[in-house]
């Protein structure tokens, strides 16, 4: 990410509030994104606004319409003095002013024509957003994008209701930024570096200061050894045993001459961490299912780097990892002197580096050359897949029965009814070239006409 | 204008939209989005007020502002930008604080609906009270990262903003900050105080020098430190001159300041031996002999994201002093700087001094990026969340205009769909809390404190203004004589400020009548005298006396339980007279959905859903429909 924007502003300052949400890698992904908007409707420009402000690389608007009165009323980025001009052009200009870092471009043409004359035009984008596009064109567009694995976001708004649908064959995520994750401390699968570091420390012979500044991770390790000796090598398993284990740790707190326990924050932290730190190291289900995915099992020359990485990690798990993912290599903040905190941090980092090196080798074995490997985030791998629009819109493959079960009840307030309604409205529009209820005197007669559409 | 609307809003509602008058409080992240939505919905009379000016860090989301607007009034620029898109609306902009006495109940009564788009709790409290006093419906909102919330407040009908107590800001005892820091945040708070001592508004509560009244020094161990104190009177003499005056005289010489703060003061702390019996003692640094520190960090390069070595911290320290000194002198005689996380020098200053102090005390150092987050209490913010929330504000507003206020909801925006696949979760509005100290007919609250220690100044500044949200309180004792303690008229009661409560005969059971004329708010404050409070607190507020009794009984019970346990570690016996340090509150405080609310939302949905089959999850196996 370049640190200076096109307007000379410091990007770290301008984007500060969002960098804290998605980090540098997220920002870099955003800045390399090329987004195409089909139809500069109110919804369309609103979406683009929210993408341009945080700094996507570029946007292109495809729209063959001219600015009309109704546009000016509901679209903030079309003004009265632009009536009759190209909607694509006007919206591109006004949206472009939002952020000089995002380059804007437009094509004054109808998407259905563009699909005929130059279908590969759409293949070059990171994402295509289509708003209020009629079903026929939508299907053509989605077919084109599906084959080229470009994500398509379908949006349709109608008064107070609307829907949004993502159609992507496969979208892979290496850093999924999950909300809550356990620390990866491996107290149940102690690696050599951890063992030798902890064994080099002796709590009993420490002076008072060192004793109360020993990282709690080390304390847990030490008392785990004690516990295991008393319990046939088993760690505390259930609530009762964990409570007993906490007592054991508490007894390690130094006492003063009168036998009153001293204040040792690190021991308090150790006790508090028992429940969260003594969890079994396991492989998250989302990662497990990736290992089972055919794309992972059957690599070929067309396989994406993501799947090669998944395969390498899977091989690591089955081999060197002995059933566990590579060590993440980070530890939480804790009461400790910086010297030993940094040493402990290093112990985990070294192990992580070692594991990453093994995975990198495996990747090299799987394919000649690939860039940097980020397997320390192995637990955050994710894949998103959708059904194609074609399957959804084709009555043979549509999930008609389930949908019908939702709308069978006339008094239902299930939102699926809106989905059905909006699809019917699309059909209506295709036949009458206007929306149902558009003319006040047509509202009543339009209702039975709308009900006619049975696309299921 | 708004050509598509006839098909969406009923004719009657559209008429009301055209005629109604709105007040939008705040023209920031939510405010910009809200103004856009209001203009497009067809609202014709909008007044917007904001105290702030535009900063670079606003530009990633506050889309009515551009780079060339930085430094200008948010409300003015927002008005002009919105009008340039849609010139047919009447927008009045005020570049002012909503808590100013210019905006009294009569001002609020001009409006049909007030919409908050605020980023701080003090202003939210105030607008809440103004709307209660004027009996105007208020749409309240907040965002934090991907999360957001909208709710509606109407006198006597719903909970008010202050019906449920909010989590208090985290505070640190003064002696922890000044003498015995143990976490990065302690060093960061110290550095912010240092900034204010040197360049900003001097506040006696923000002293950064060693604290000789540390309660840990009490008893005979303290005596020796006291003796040490007299032997280091030279240092003290410098001290009493005020850090700022001393720094000015030395011309903000980096070497002199460094050696005072990081060598002499630390040596002085070391002389208080009691403090270091159980702690790792700090290591004083000398400007002439700085350690070579190797700081292992992955992300080399980006200045914000890597740890600075001590030598680098020192050169930054030196540059900052020069730069800040110049800025201060530009302000002229008696001028001062205000610490701002988005100000390059101010932020660099806190980063380097906090890290030097952390090094001295053997505390983990932090990157500038992390320190900014902690020092500025930064809440992440993006346009998308603000846009969603602003949309919901308008929806609630339309219900109110349509006469359907009882249909209004609190709506939470989640990051992930909930188990029922909802991203937006509506919950019914709660009835007013009969024990609320704001919105009931005769509000009462109880303050627990030591009446021999609390001064009238503390009562006014910390209890009435900060904790109870008053702006300009008048206070008299309900003793039949009507003794006036605090008057909002200037010059009438300043002489009382440093006197203690018991000096006016205030003791356990006293009742204080507190009035805020502007907020049209009267509160009876009951005083409960206690010699000592838990966790070194200066005072504590409780709803009423019965709550206090229940709480104390529960605590006695808890202590009894704890005493049974002989392994229980002894709680630090800290005396009660120390001042608490306050870290600024988050920019955009929102009330996160509490558990009971969530459950209620689910209950509500389930009950209305019961008659039909709930099978949503089945269909969505593949389609993954998320209901907004
Ligand atoms: Zn209330």
Query: What is the assigned CATH homologous superfamily of the largest domain in chain B?
Result: NAD(P)-binding Rossmann-like Domain
The helix-and-strand class of chain A reads alpha/beta
* Percent helix range of chain A: 40-55%
Q: Count of helices of chain A?
A: 20
Instruction: Name the poorly predicted regions of chain A.
Output: 369-374
Strand order of the largest sheet of chain A: 3-2-1-4-5-6
CATH architecture term of the largest domain in chain B: 3-Layer(aba) Sandwich
| CATH fold annotation of the largest domain in chain A | Rossmann fold
Helical/strand content category of chain B: alpha/beta
- What share of residues are in beta strands of chain A? 5-15%
Biggest beta-sheet profile of chain B? 8 strands, mixed
Alpha-carbon Rg of chain A, integer: 30 Å
Q: Give the helix proportion of chain B (percent range).
A: 25-40%
Q: What is the C-alpha radius of gyration of chain B, as a whole number of Å?
A: 27 Å
Question: Could you please describe the fold and organization of this structure?
Answer:
The complex is a heterodimer of chains A (456) and B (628). Chain A has 456 residues and is an alpha/beta fold. Chain A has 4 domains: 7-169, Rossmann fold, CATH 3.40.50.720; 192-278, no CATH class; 285-384, no CATH class; 402-452, no CATH class. Chain A contains 20 helices and 8 strands. Chain A has helices at residues 11-14, 16-31, 42-52, 69-74, 87-96, 111-117, 135-147, 192-199, 208-212, 216-230, 239-250, 265-277, 285-292, 294-297, 305-318, 338-366, 389-393, 400-407, 416-432, 443-452, and strands at residues 34-38, 58-62, 103-107, 127-131, 152-158, 161-167, 171-173, 382-384. Chain A has a 6-stranded mixed beta sheet with strand order 3-2-1-4-5-6, sandwiched between helices. In chain A, strand 4, helix 7 (135-147) and strand 5 form a beta-alpha-beta unit. Chain B is α/β, with parallel strands linked by helices and 628 residues long. In chain B, the strands form 3 sheets. In chain B, strands 3-2-1-4-5-6-8-9 form an 8-stranded mixed beta sheet, with helices on both faces. Mean pLDDT of chain B is 81; it is low at 225-239 and 560-625. Chain B starts with 10 loop residues before the first helix and ends in a 5-residue tail after the last helix. Chain B has helices at 11-19, 29-41, 74-85, 105-108, 121-134, 174-178, 184-198, 220-231, 233-240, 243-249, 254-271, 310-330, 344-360, 368-376, 383-401, 456-467, 545-564, 595-609, 616-623, and strands at residues 21-25, 45-49, 90-94, 113-116, 138-144, 147-153, 171-173, 409-413, 424-428, 444-449, 473-477, 484-486, 511-516, 521-529, 539-542, 580-582. The longest helix of chain B has 21 residues, at 310-330. Helices cover 38% and strands 13% of the residues of chain B. Chain B has 3 domains: 2-167 and 380-428, Rossmann fold, CATH 3.40.50.720; 174-213 and 241-376, Arc Repressor Mutant, subunit A, CATH 1.10.10; 444-558, Ubiquitin-like 2 activating enzyme e1b. Chain:  B, domain 3 (Structural Genomics Hypothetical 15.5 Kd Protein In mrcA-pckA Intergenic Region, Chain A), CATH 3.10.290. The interface between A and B is large, with 86 and 74 residues. Zinc ion binds at residues 159-160, 162-163, 432-433, 436, 438-439 of chain B.
